[in-house]
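Milestone 3.1: sequence recovery, worked example.
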């Protein structure tokens, strides 16, 4: 009798909370292009269309992704990018780069 009652009940749909881009940016401090590229590689929860011009993400999927990233980071499974080779820089950070010598003279200097 119990199995018959279960069959006659309509299937229950679980409503899950979705978030828009603004909330996603608050939760995940990555650039839009980084998120898009990670989605394409299957490394980030996929967005879905609410309307033709509105996309959203499943909040639970994003939270699970963040938790998994935190656990991977704590376990040392996430490799950090190598430090940049500062010897390849044209100028030191905070210093103005020298102007190329091919620039024409300033018209302001000619007025003197």
């Amino acid at each position: 009798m119990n199995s018959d009652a279960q069959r006659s009940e309509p299937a229950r749909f679980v409503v899950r909370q979705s978030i828009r881009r603004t909330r996603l940016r608050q939760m995940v401090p990555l650039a839009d292009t980084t998120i898009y590229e990670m989605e394409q590689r299957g490394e980030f929860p996929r967005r879905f269309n609410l309307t033709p011009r509105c996309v959203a993400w499943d909040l639970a999927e994003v939270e699970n992704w963040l938790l998994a990233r935190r656990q991977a980071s704590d376990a040392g499974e996430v490799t950090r990018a190598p430090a940049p080779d500062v010897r390849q820089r044209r100028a030191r950070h905070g210093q103005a780069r020298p102007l190329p010598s091919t620039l024409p003279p300033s018209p302001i200097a000619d007025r003197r």
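The first helix runs from residue 2 to 8. Residues 16-78 form one domain.
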